[in-house]
Design goal:
Layout: E1 17-23, H1 30-42, E2 47-52, H2 67-78, E3 83-86, H3 88-92, H4 97-107, E4 112-118, H5 119-124, H6 131-137, E5 140-143, H7 156-160, E6 182-185, H8 194-202
Parallel strand pairs: 1-2, 1-4, 2-3, 4-5, 5-6
Helix pairs in contact: 4-6
Length: 206
Amino acid sequence: MTSPPRLVLPLHTPGMRIGLFGGTFDPPHAAHLGASLLALKRLNLDRIWWLVTPGNPLKDTRGLQPLEQRMAAARELTKHAQIDVTGLEAVINTRYTHDTLDFLVRRCRGVRFVWVMGADNLRSFSRWQNWRGIANLMPMAVVDRMGSSLYAINARAPQALGRYRLPEDMAPVLADCAPPAWIYLHGLKSPLSSTQLRAKRSKPRG
C-alpha cells in the first residue's frame, strides 16, 4: 500500500515576508522568473514560493506536463537562493487558490504572506473561486505584463477593490499591511506566455 505524500513546506519562520506565486508553470519561463525577482526586490521579501498547481480550474489543462516534470523545470530555471518551488496543492489536495492560501495562513502562523500575480490574471480575477476571500486573506501584488496594464485595471475585480489599492511607493511595506490591500508593480514588460509556449510545443513539425 502506497503511503500518502508527506507535507514538507519550504523554509519559513514567524515574521518572515514570503511572496506566493502560483500557476501551472507549463512551461516555466523568463517572465515568471522576472516577476519573482521584481517582487523580491520591490516588496522587500525574504523569499518567494512558486506554488506549482496540478491544474487550473479555469483553463483546459489537458496536455499539461506531469507535475513533477514541471517542478523540476521550475527549479532548473530559478536556481535562486530565495525562490522555493513546491507542489503543495497536490499534497493537501486543494483545487482552488483560496483554499491553498487559507491553509498556509492557518498553518504558518506569524508569516507575512503576499499573493503575487501577473496583470493578465488580474483581468480574470473575478472569475476565481472566492476571489474576495483571497483579497481578505493577505495583501496582493500585481506585476505588470506586456499590454496587460491597458485593460487589467478596468476589469471587475480591481474596480471592486479600488479603494484598497495602495500607491506603488508603498511596495516595501505591503507585507506589513492588513488585507485587503494591493499594489500594482510596474517595470516588467515581457510578452512571454506559458499558454503560447504550450501551443508552440503541441504544433506538429512540418
